[in-house]
Amino acid sequence: QIRAGGTLRGMTVTADAKGNVKGFAGNPQVMLPPNALGKLDVGGAVGHGILNVIKDMGMKEPYVGQVGLQTGEIAEDLTYYFATSEQVASSVGLGVLMNHDNTVRQAGGFIIQLMPFTPDEVVDRLEKKITEIDSVTQMLDRGLTPEQILEEILGDFGLEITDTTETRFHCDCSKERVSRALSTLSKKDLDSIIADGESIEVKCQFCNKAYEFTVDELKEMR
Predict the structure, then answer these.
(1) What confidence score (pLDDT) does residue 57 get?
(2) Residue 58 and residue 60: Cα distance in Å, rounded?
(3) Which of 67, 163, 207, 222 is the most buried (most CB within 10 A)?
(4) CA distance 6 to 101
(5) CA distances (Å), 10 to each of 5, 15, 44, 47, 131, in order?
């Protein structure tokens, strides 16, 4: 979860262990001129704020890590988060290819993390390699798969792929879930909606699916 003061108005993304991912931006229609490097001005859109990472690992309480955004460039801020909040030396690379109509053509990235006691010479070689590779955007433009991107970075290190997981956009919203969210409104707010005497439509923030609630259903919630 990113809470920041830029025109994007923050964003929320959730994922599970099965590769189901969903997310939304506070203002998805942001249009900014390219940054000084001629690239998407992600940092300008995100602005200054905080990054929260919440992990439900089946314990009594979820793990919550929080860091201040360093640049608003998500990959750099995630690298900083791993280093400071989880104390894991990491390298995060992200890239997005846009179409001319402001839709996303391709997006992808990598996270490389060091195991404990990684020898210094391996770390030095890896750091050098990461400075030499193409950007993720360039690799996506070349049509590289995730496996091929890893091969570009780690091929000299004896890369062995032990597992793969399909990822997909998947929203698990339902009328019941949306009604639970509605029922958290104050009685005063619900009274105001009921007083209008008309059904209301509530859209899921993640997938935009619309759910209708009749006046009787709203009264029941009240």
Answers:
(1) 87
(2) 7
(3) 67
(4) 22
(5) 7, 17, 12, 9, 29
C-alpha closest to that of 41 among 9, 12, 13, 74: 74
State which H helix or E strand residue 147 sits in: helix 146-154
What are residue 107's DSSP bridge partners? Answer: 96
Beta carbons of 44 and 32 less than 8 angstroms apart: yes
φ/ψ (deg, to 5) at 75: -60, -45
Rounded distance, CA 85 to CA 92, Å? 15
Helices of type H across the chain: 42-46, 74-85, 120-132, 136-141, 146-154, 175-182, 187-195, 215-221
Each residue's pLDDT tens digit, 115-165: 999 999 999 999 999 999 999 999 999 999 999 999 999 999 999 999 999
* Average pLDDT of the segment spanning 12-37: 90
How far apart (Å, rounded) are the C-alpha atoms in residues 40 and 8?
13
8 Å CB contact between 177 and 29: no
> In terms of pLDDT, which residue wins out, 33 or 63?
63
Contact at 8 Å (CB) between 85 and 65?
yes
User: Smallest Cα–Cα separation from 20: which of 203, 163, 207?
Assistant: 207
Percentage of the chain with pLDDT > 90?
75
- Location of structure tokens 């439509």: 201
C-alpha to C-alpha distance for 194 and 96, rounded to whole angstroms: 44
